[in-house]
Specification:
With 249 residues, the chain is α+β, with helices and mostly antiparallel strands. It has a domain at 146-221: Hypothetical protein ph0010, domain 2 (Dna Ligase, domain 1, 2-Layer Sandwich), CATH 3.30.1490. 24% of the residues lie in helices and 29% in strands. Strands 1-5-4-6-9-7-8 form a seven-stranded antiparallel beta sheet. Strands 2-3 form a two-stranded antiparallel sheet. Strand 2 and strand 3 (43-45) form a beta hairpin. Helix 1 (52-65) packs across helix 2.
Length: 249
């Protein structure tokens, strides 16, 4: 647990006892547009994520560290979605902080909040310092397409994020999540991913097939965008309106 607010917050390896409720798309967002192709009536999913989102996170971080005025209202959608903000550092992009929420938040508020939380409140790391900022990379992940899986291996590496619910050794219900890229980046199998997630969620006992198949697993997808500090600054210097990088397509 990262905060004490009603909606539960997670790092991508943090556990919580909060149950995941089914998520519905925003009422004002269809998510799908009909194709104009004359060969059929295929649907094309409209992307949610844009580069302005991680750019905005950098603006929020800089303004927080240097105690400047908050950035102006950004240009991208303010529809509500679950989200994660991830900071990595250096050429090898080591994890520096990652926190998010499975509750749908309006994106302007959510990105402001989690830009700061992931940089300063991830309990696995010290707070990000001003000296580290030029080495940072920021990723924003917008979570979509939540589905209850049939069993603990009913998901695809590199495609689905997973969130598990289980009971620990003391009979307490716990949850933990990995974003879609984690298993692929680590080179894990599905079983290794599940076992790692159980440990991250606080399970201390022997992990057997019986334990694995008692897990309740929810799979989801994410739209992810990553930018470096250098890219952010190049774009920022071309744009006259901080926080609204409308020169980027």
């Amino acid at each position: 647990m990262v905060t004490k607010r009603k909606d539960k917050r997670y790092s991508n390896t943090t556990s919580s006892s909060n149950a995941l409720r089914p998520l519905r798309p925003p009422a004002n967002h269809t998510g799908w547009e009909a194709s104009n192709s004359t060969t059929g009536c295929c649907a094309i999913k409209k992307p949610i994520i844009v580069k302005e989102m991680p750019f905005y996170c950098f603006e929020v971080l800089l303004n927080h560290i240097y105690r400047l005025e908050p950035p102006r209202v950004p240009c991208f959608t303010n529809d509500p979605y679950p989200l994660f903000v991830t900071w990595k550092i250096g050429k090898d992009k080591k994890l520096r902080g990652c926190i998010g929420t499975f509750s749908a938040l309006n994106l302007h508020q959510g990105l402001r909040e989690y830009s700061i939380s992931s940089a300063f409140k991830d309990s696995r790391f010290n707070s990000v310092s001003a000296e580290e900022i030029p080495k940072l990379h920021c990723s924003v992940s917008i979570l979509t397409d939540f589905e209850e899986a049939r069993h603990c291996l009913d998901w695809e590496i590199g495609v689905n994020g997973i969130r598990i619910e289980f009971y620990n050794d003391k009979g307490h219900r716990k949850t933990a999540t990995y974003l879609p890229e984690v298993a692929k980046e680590q080179g894990w199998t599905k079983v290794e991913t599940i076992d790692s997630l159980l440990r991250k969620g606080g399970f201390k006992g022997h992990i057997s097939n019986e334990v694995r198949h008692r897990i309740k697993l929810t799979r989801y997808r994410s739209e992810k965008m990553t930018v470096s500090y250098d890219e952010f600054m190049r774009t920022r210097n071309r744009c006259q309106t901080p926080g609204c990088h409308n020169t980027v397509t």
